[in-house]
Amino acid sequence: RDYTKVADKLISLGPDVHHYGSKGQYADLTPIVEEELKNNQNLTVKDGRVYFERAEQACELICQISPELNGRLAHMFFKEMEKKIGLPLADLVESVKARRVHYQDIISQPRRIHTTPQWSAILFDPKTGKERTFGPWTMNVERLKPWHTLSGRQEVYYDHQGIRELGEALPTNKPPLDMVAIGDIKMDGAEAKSKLFRFITPHGKWQIHSSFRDHWPMMQMSRGGPTVWLNPDDAAEIEVADNDWVEMYCQNGIEVVRAVVSHQVPRNMAITYHQVERHMNVPLSPLAKKRNCTDLRGGNNNATTRILMNPATMIGGYAQFSYYINYWGTSPSERDHGVLIRKMPLAAGKQKVIYQESQLHLLPQA
């Protein structure tokens, strides 16, 4: 190992590109590297190697080695796939072979992506010449591309001894786990005027793993911090109004959030979109003080959750159920979960909620 070249390895394609070429998962990328990347005005070439020292250059590199944005690459991938499955598919991207979407294009305005083998949607119909909205599985259904399973078909039966023993061989409806019955939620430790909810943590409406927004419409709609969505009848039961501060808690932890009361939420369900940054300060929690927690403001959306391992996902090396580094091997589940919610006690006087630790003595008793 040559530690003097660690930085160089992070910002450039290695010298072995000259000898072995650039092999990709679906096709040989050597023509892309030699003919396109080395002639890309946004990238730097030194001693015959491609460098991407600036963040914008790294983004440009990603764009040009992605079939979604490089039409030639998408066509190459489909040509290789045709050899494997024996069906014509490259015509799906014939019209965009010469199209390239650059990083500067993306930051100037949204751009459409190409149809690719990695995704199952057809985004352009070569027969009608019209663009299509993303619709999953259209390539499998309309063009008979095999499904990514052992048989190439939509499988509903998994003939594996371990899966059969777990009762997972066929699709089966399973109700949510009763977290009280299995002892995960202890009701004898519930505070007064608390209610038990099923706790759901989906992706947000306008984000996935971050709520950062830098344009005014989204910032206008944001309440600035974490929230929990509750049904109006449930909220009334624990005397919570829209925008009230509430404490969500269980044996695992505490989270302090504002309540969003909406008729769209089913009864007995609490929804907290993850991950929401704390753009606005979060007040101190009376319950956290009572329980001697290390963080007196509570934690994030995973403060109350714990990981439950699914043994079915520990079965590796069987058809499409093979280990892959993306939440499969084994998959933790934080979804079958319960949480207790109560309206957060307010301090006397005008301040109501306490933000500064110097005023900790004003925090009401839990």
What does this structure look like?
- This protein has 2 domains: about 5-140, no CATH class; about 185-360, Barwin-like endoglucanases, CATH 2.40.40.
- The model has no long low-confidence stretch (mean pLDDT about 85).
- A hairpin with a 2-residue loop joins strand 1 and strand 2.
- A 6-stranded mixed β-sheet has the order 6-8-7-12-5-9. A two-stranded antiparallel sheet has the order 1-2. Strands 3-4 form a two-stranded antiparallel ribbon.
- The chain is globular, with a radius of gyration of 27 Å.
- It has about 375 residues and is of the alpha+beta class.
- The chain is built from 11 helices and 12 strands.
What's a concise summary of this model?
The chain is of the alpha+beta class and 366 residues long. Helix content is 20%, strand content 13%.
Key structural traits:
Barwin-like endoglucanases; alpha+beta; globular; 12 strands; six-stranded mixed sheet; single chain; two-stranded antiparallel ribbon
Report the principal-axis shape. Answer: globular
Taking all residues together, what is the mean pLDDT? 87
Number of helices: 11
**CATH architecture classification of the largest domain:** Beta Barrel
Could you spell the SSE succession in H and E letters? HHHEEHHHEEHHEHEHEEEHEEE
| CA gyration radius, whole angstroms | 27 Å
Q: Using DSSP, what is the number of strands?
A: 12
Oligomer: single chain
- Uncertain stretches of 5 or more adjacent residues: none
With strands numbered from the N-terminus, the spatial order across the biggest sheet is 6-8-7-12-5-9
CATH fold category name of the largest domain: Barwin-like endoglucanases
What is the makeup of the main sheet?
6 strands, mixed
What class, by secondary structure content? alpha+beta
CATH class category of the largest domain: Mainly Beta
Percent in helix: 10-25%
Task: Report the portion of residues in β strands.
Answer: 5-15%
Terminal residue distance: 58 Å
Total discrete domains: 2
